[in-house]
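2 proteins. here.
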Amino acid sequence: MSAVAPALTVHRVEVLDRHRLLLAGRGAGELVLEGPDGARATVAAVPAVDGGDAEALVDLGALAPGAWTVGAELEPAARLPGAAIVPTPGGLRRVRVRRGDDGALRLDLRAAGPHAELAHVALHDGAVTVEVEADGERLVARRRDGAEEVAADAEPAGPGRVAARLELAPLRPAGVWDLYLDDRRIGRHLDDLPGKRDALAYPVLPAGDLEARPYLTVEDNLSIRVAPAGTAPALPGLSIGRVSLRRRLLRPLALAVHHAAVRLLPALAGRERDGDDHQVRILLTHAWGMGGTIRTTLNLAEHLAARYDVELLSLVRRRDEPFFALPPGVTVDAVDDRREPPRSRLARLAARLPSVLMHPDDFVFADATLLTDIRLARRLRGLRGGALIATRPAFALLVARLAPRDVVTIAQEHMNFRAHRPGLARQARRVFHRLDALAVLTEGDRADYEAMLAGTATEVVRIPNAVPRLHGGVAALDAPVVVAAGRLNSQKGFDLLIAAWRRVAERHPDWQLRIYGRGSERAALQRLIFEAGLQERVLLMGATRRLGEALERASIFALSSRFEGFGMVLVEAMSRGVPVVSFDCPRGPSEIVSDGVDGLLVPAEDVDGLADALCALIEDPARRRAMGRAALDKAARYDAAAIGREWEALLDDLLGRRHAIF
């Protein structure tokens, strides 16, 4: 390796689409790669679009086979991908990313063995049918750690395609069985999705007194795992509308303790003192986590940092590296850092006790402890002047009661007026009048909150979220792909979308639904996919930092939420020129989507209507493209600079008035 100084300190490596390697970390400049026979390649390391991290994209197809050393410093805890198969102009390559003995980042590129491209897997009771885009005579299952083989004859299934039915009962003993067409490994390598092991999942099938589960390996090859019956965990059902017995029993006690605790807050309230009108603090749950509120909060903080001293107060911190890059020029501090246990015995005890200051009807209650309460109360009492923005109702209630009077207090409502639990809504009616301002996302919420706060000094303003900067370009709208995105929970209604896709798949089996996000309902949604037989047509893609690139490869975006605070993901899709099909749920979609112009609105929770609307755009490419052009125009209204100016105007007005008083 040459003496060129590393341009990048890498903490994350990913394989993107079909041929690129992403190196993410800190730094900038020219990244040098040295390969076999003195070969060299250079790649620019440039700041990422969402700030903070730098990124270098290595075109794997441009590198000669062999071992390459990357001129980057690899952090000790850097996340490295498993081996992957990528198509290049010279054929399929096996790519392995590893840490060398000297700690350097190394790439091993080798020609992959001959393969047969997997087209389709059909599941039966006790058997599996595999369709392959190649000519061949036999489907062969070979046990990975033994010499056993089970074969089935392949029959023509169309031009250049064969299929074979493999009975599962003969796959003995238990273990992993790799599938071949004659002597070629069967794999799915020529689509645009690397790393399909989790996204393209198959259910467990009976195999005599054993059970078998087809799956794609880390290299996207097809294998079957055979194990004793009953060893695979059962997939749960959906928990929509369910309230646990523990919560039902403990909620009254938690509310009683909470109400008693908040009565003591006036005694803790801070006193007026000289403050800094250029200080803006934003209180959120987990700045290092993922989610729409976190992303829009980081986006707002980055814009405001150009004029104010901005500090993000994260209630908790659980991870070293943030999911989203933290904005430059913004101070980020954790109130309760959970990465190491508290040192004192008293603090360890408080960390095991539930919160008494967070309202039990706000979901943040589960994230907080008594130790969190104590640390947050100290932070709020110590504030001096400036403004404090609370991003959850529980935070707003606490800020309204506890912030010193010389601090401008603003609640930012990310959910709609009617979505909160009754106890939380009652407290908002009693306490929100102490706030200086309440910022909501929709006109409907502004009207509702203005009625609730009529006769008080609290100013209610509508400021929608700004669309964040995304990777990727404008979608061509010619791929047979529909994208959806959001946390995998009951609110987002992906169970309804899967039910609708069952009808879509009957009419358009070549189209695929890709759902991006993670959450508590993943396993239950996977069960719905299995039960509907949609395992190759509905993919749970997991969380992504590069939603823009996923949208660039889509032709339609679907939103199936039961309710929304706004629906920023609709604007994100529009910013890539993707038309949307959305439930007209409360609240947000009807204020974003112009029905029939840049998307289609369907009555809330109308599964058949959602399926029909999706099919309508699938079947009319010209209409899709026209709506995509209109979607780009609509997204421009939510530009970060324009939305940021609205926040600046609100802060300037409130801080100016407070400065005149104090």
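next one coming up
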Amino acid sequence: MNQSSAKSSQVVKPSARKDSDVCSALCDVLLGGIDIHRVLAAQALGHIGGEEAVEALIKALLDEDADVRTDAATALVRLVDAKADKQLLENLIGDPCPEVKLAAMTALAATRSREVVPWLLRILASRDEDIVWDDDEFYETGWDDWLDMQLKAIEGLANLGIEEAVPGIVTAISDAEAQDITDTAMKALARIGPSGITALAAYLENGDARLRRHAALVITRCDGVEAVKAVRLAICDPSVEVRLAVARGLAGRNPEDERLEALLLDDDPLVRGEAVRLCGEHHASRLDLLLDDKNEAVRLAVLELLANHPELSGVPFLADRLRELMRAPSISITAAAVVAFCVVEPKNAVAEITDLMTGEHISTEIQRAVICGLKAVGGDEAVQGLVDILACEDRQVRLEAMSAIADLAAQTDWPNVPGETLLAAVSGDLVPAPEIEAEEAEEAQEVEEAVVVELEDDIPPTSTLESILGGFKSQAEAPPPEDVELTHEDMEFLNLTGGAGKKGRRTVPVVPDVVPHEDVRLFAARLLGNFPYPDITLALLDPLSSGENELKQTAMDSLAHIAGDLSELPVEVLEVLKVEAKSENQDMRRQAVRAMGCSKDASVVMILINTLDDEDSFVRSEAIRSLGRLGEAGAGVGRLLADPDAFVRLTAAQALADTAAAGVVETLVEFSFAFEGFHGREAARMLASIDRPAANALFMKTLNDEERKRYWKVAIEGLEELNRNQISTETQVSA
């Protein structure tokens, strides 16, 4: 049936279309459309399914276009229908396209066709002469397609459990001149059955440690007498890598496996340490000796295990031994012992570990360990210990201490002491700004003025000779010519780099040089965003009035995050948001608009509508989402389906889809065709949750219109998204 006759035979009103009509129309396209449409129809039918689809895809296996044949075979992989086996086998043997062969082989294995087994065995062995290959591509690209086919054949034979494949797989593994298929091949041997496991076990007596390692990792996941014997042999293997593979394999399957206990006593510290991490909690009786292991890495592994498993505190004299380790010469051991001690002895821990912080030069690693320990202990005393750490000079340590306080605040009902600590921090009361004496301030001002004068006097050289004679004294850049005008984008870039209006060369440190009291407020403002309570929103108003841009931005971010979890915002907060929605800072506008979408105050709707025309696309997107949350998505949002920004368009489409209002199906179908179908699939997925039959009818109407052929690609993709698994499921139910 040609394409025109197919269309004339389907004169049905759009409202009367059924899912079977969708399948029929796509089958017609597959068998009579242009190449790009045939490819798309094959892909769509593979996701939609149905008896008619299978018949059409079988016919498409003979298509003149290799891409169509490939997609048809791939679709049949998903549909798993034995009716296609005969033609798939013919494609495997006689189709020169390697992609078609691979897809056909996979489809045949999926249907568990026994007819394909002899051919898989032949492909496993060599580039069989009775099979058609694309020799031209081999000479043009230098890649032998048979190598890909061999891997796929191994997987297919393993899935089918063909024991006759074992010798061929073993031969392929040992072929030094071929590709390395060790991992795939050994996993295949394990899946084949007893004979495959026997062959796999034989590798553990091989002289190549690499092969033994691969075999050990795979065979630990196998059952049977042969597998047990092989694992017992691998545990004693002379190679550390092999024994590590055994440890990982056994622990991955069952960390309580008794065989792992031998690896806790291994001669090599790498194996002992890895065994502790993998299964130490299930073999607690061995931890007593391992805590005194002569190797530091093993002791560290035990200490980390104790910190993560409080139930393991039955080790003899554990608390005293940890106290001793907290004074060890090794910083790493001390730090790990601190955390473990807090878990084992929480009642007495705070006083003992805070003593470690009294020294003049405490390492960052120990400071961070104390923070972890205090967090594990909890309670008011631990909170005070964390507050004392906030004056530390290391910024990362300050951040971790603040995060620990926030974690403690989240563990109990609000309000609580850690939460009050965060509120004091954001207000600036917890770590106040240091008082600067008048004399110190005057000296600092004189130094700053001297630096400015020096930079201004440091005029750059005007010639190469002058540079040489001057010894390259100046690093300042020459001023730009007066006739060069900087664009708005240039000025923004200069502001970001700190170059606008400044002399001299600047570098940005990896860790900003921020004084503790500023950091504490900043971190608190960020962390309070995890606590959705009205009093938190009021507390964030103070940093919002700050002159520090980063602090102000952080407070607004947290406020916007909190607003989404509150039923209503305090009036004071809402008034500030209305002001910030008109800020010159686009990030402040965006977050303010986001937060206002969580308010029930009718006065915000007009403000949000006005921000739909904001110059920043992110602000427009947030305005759309906020209007959607307020149930006002119809207020001007529809026109943003034509916005120049793709993300704004998609956000507007989703907001309209959420309304499910009258006419939205037609609007979204037309939107799917806009911008060359850029949003076609996304729009179809939205339509599937609104009115799938109505959307089907509209896409079918386009597919039946020869004058709209340029939109057929979008229509086919839309029908695929709308009907994924629908027809095949309905067919199974009716059967």
